[in-house]
Amino acid sequence: MASNAPVGVFDSGVGGLSVLREIRQLLPHESLLYVADSGHVPYGEKSAEYIRERSRTIAEFLLGQGAKALVLACNTATVAAVAELRERYPTLPLVGMEPAVKPAAAATRSGLVGVLATTGTLKSAKFAALLDRFAGDVRVITQPCPGLVECVEAGELDSAATRELLRGYVEPLLAEGCDTLILGCTHYPFLKPLLRELVPASVSLIDTGAAVARQLQRLLEREQLLADGPAEPTRYWSSGEPERMRRVLPLLLGDEAEVRAF
Predict the structure, then answer these.
(1) CATH code of domain 7-97+209-261
(2) Which residues are known catalytic residues?
(3) Which of 47, 53, 123, 257 is most open to solvent, judged by the fewest CB atoms within 10 Å of its CB?
(4) Where are the domain boundaries for CATH 3.40.50.1860 in the chain?
(5) pLDDT, averaged in runs of 10, over the chain (262 residues)
(6) How many Å apart are CA 76 and CA 117, to the nearest integer?
(7) Would you tell me the crossing angle of helices 242-253 and 17-26 to the nearest 10 degrees?
(8) Would you say domain 101-206 falls under CATH 3.30.390.10?
(9) Which pTM was predicted?
(10) Is residue 165 a contact partner of residue 148, using CB atoms and an 8 Å limit?
């Protein structure tokens, strides 16, 4: 595999662009491919087998496009499919997502951590194992957030409806005394500016996009696959309405780009 081959990134929708943004910042010489499975969003309410099937299909497509590595920029897809994909492609550098339980447990002063995530992530055995491993003496309060993914997909990052939905999810966590909030879905970092208006400045907001970028860097270095640039323009595909994604790209990423049908 050539070191200047692209890295493939995918998510249930546009949320993984928050991870792609971190990869660009850390690894500016890497060319990137991005698939938004927006025709099947949200994954959080789907069965594990359904998500595995979608992940297999997208992984095969990205590898067919010449990807040298894959990033599952989706917590729910990671929970459901990363083990199978690693078994299927044992030599492929492959990075998944995990809710940031360990850094949140280290950051909290009150000992109370809130998790905003999809239903699928919160129900998973993998998330339960993370709590057992890293939460220790910290009390973790989980909050499923149906509807937030759809708000980000529509580019409604600060609408009245999004604000009320987010307020309804955050206020119970603050009332319990949480001083640290984990953003357990890759869509949610795009709501950080709105969250900052709804929570005290003393509350920490933690996501894992930067950590995923660092892990990708480590794997590419290990396999001697780091690109020396220059990067090609990012190529985008969507299984939903490509025009809809094209309209939200400038809002979410600052990109004006063609989006192809997947």
Answers:
(1) 3.40.50.1860
(2) 74, 185
(3) 47
(4) 7-97+209-261, 101-206
(5) 94 97 97 97 89 98 98 93 96 93 93 92 84 88 94 95 98 97 95 97 96 97 94 97 96 95 98
(6) 9
(7) 50
(8) no
(9) 0.94
(10) yes
